[in-house]
Amino acid sequence: MLRVLIADDHEIVRRGVRDVVENHLGWEVCGESCHGSEVLAMAQEQRPNVVVLDVSLPGLNGIAVTRQIRHALPATEVLLFTMHDDDETVAGGLAAGARGYLLKSEGETQLVAAISALGTHRPYFSPAVAEMLLEAAVHERKKSRLESFTLRELEVAQLIAEGGSNKQIARRLGISIKTVESHRAAAMRKAGVRTAAEFVRFAIKHNLIQA
Hints:
The chain is an alpha/beta fold. The protein has helices at residues 11-22, 36-46, 62-72, 87-96, 108-119, 127-140, 151-161, 166-173, 177-191, 196-205, and strands at 2-7, 27-33, 50-53, 77-82, 100-103, 124-125. The chain folds into 2 domains: 2-140, Rossmann fold; 145-205, Arc Repressor Mutant, subunit A. Strands 2-1-3-4-5-6 form a 6-stranded parallel β-sheet, with helices on both faces. Helix 7 packs across helix 9. This is DNA-binding NarL/FixJ family response regulator.
C-alpha cells in the first residue's frame, strides 16, 4: 500500500488530492495537515511513502518542511505541489531534497503520474519546470570547447587528428587548401593548442578519434 500524506492550507486542494489518492487502487491517505509546523511530527508518526506538500504553508514553509522530512525520514519522498514556478522557489525546493515539483495548474493525470513516480523513488517535474531545469543546466554548465566549433571545423579537426595533410583534407572535403588552412587555424585556436601533437591529444580527449 502506497501511503500519502497531504499538506496544504486550502481545504479544497486537500480534498482534491485526497480524492485522487483514494480513487487509485493500492493508495491511501495516511494524514492531512494545513499547518507547516505539524507536518514533520505527522510524517514521523505515519511514515508515508510520499508527502504532497504546498510551498506556501503557515507556521513553516514547504521548503523548510521538505528539508526536515528528508533529514528525518530519508525514505519518504516529497512532492512539492504549488502555484510557484519561479526559478528561486524551484531551485530552493530541489536543494531542500524534493524529488518532485508539480504545478497546481496541471491536471489529475499529472498528479497521479507524479505520485506514482515518487512512490518508486523516481523524480517527476511538471513539463514547464523540467524545461526550466534543462535550460538552466545547459546555460550554467561549463561548455565543452567543441561546442564552439562549426560543423566544417569539426570535420577538418577530425581529419587533422587522423594525420591528414592539408592537401589530403582539401581533396577529401572538396574544398581549397586555403580554406582547409583557415579551418585548421580556427580549430586549433578554439582547441587552445599550438602543435599537431597537442591537437591529437585534444581530439582523443573529446572523442573525435579513438586512442
